[in-house]
């Protein structure tokens, strides 16, 4: 599989899962550590528009702020540091993630909006969980006034306003069956 080249100022869906579908997060502490490592390695290199951490996979919606090589190396450092810590904690060895992180270029604003909703709805569609209360998704960040590194204002502008952002998330989302959104 040829990997898409990442380009500065472009938007991407970044995702990966555990090798053979195994869990990459066993508890909340793992997820918190992953988010801290994400900030450590990628702060200022990417802008984050949405994320969701499920037990066996994750999704990020990002824009590159620097060149591809720098971002790819930062992601590599993130995944390596997280895998080493997770393996130590769980007394396991070997690869944790599938070979390469997946990346899909987002071609237009409509796709970007749909993907943000898709990422936030992951808990609902994978485990029938209430996505509005799911702790490891950026959805609650948009409901809050707390300071954040998520591109809250830019995302809300993309949806028109806060009310439309919430409305779009609460609709039956048939677009999840579109061919360009997949696991």
List the main descriptive attributes of the protein structure presented here:
183 residues; alpha+beta; Alpha-Beta Plaits; 4-stranded antiparallel sheet; disordered C terminus
Folded structure, characterized:
Residues 7-122 form the Transposase IS200-like domain. One of its GO terms (biological process) is DNA transposition. GO terms for molecular function: DNA binding; transposase activity. InterPro entries: Transposase_17 (IPR002686), Transposase_17_sf (IPR036515). This protein has 183 residues and is α+β, with helices and mostly antiparallel strands. Helices cover 43% and strands 15% of the residues. The protein has a single domain (11-177), classed as Transposase IS200-like (Alpha-Beta Plaits), CATH 3.30.70.1290. Strands 2-3-1-4 form a 4-stranded antiparallel beta sheet. Helix 1 runs antiparallel to helix 2 (68-90) and helix 5 crosses helix 6 (162-170). It is globular, with a radius of gyration of 16 Å.
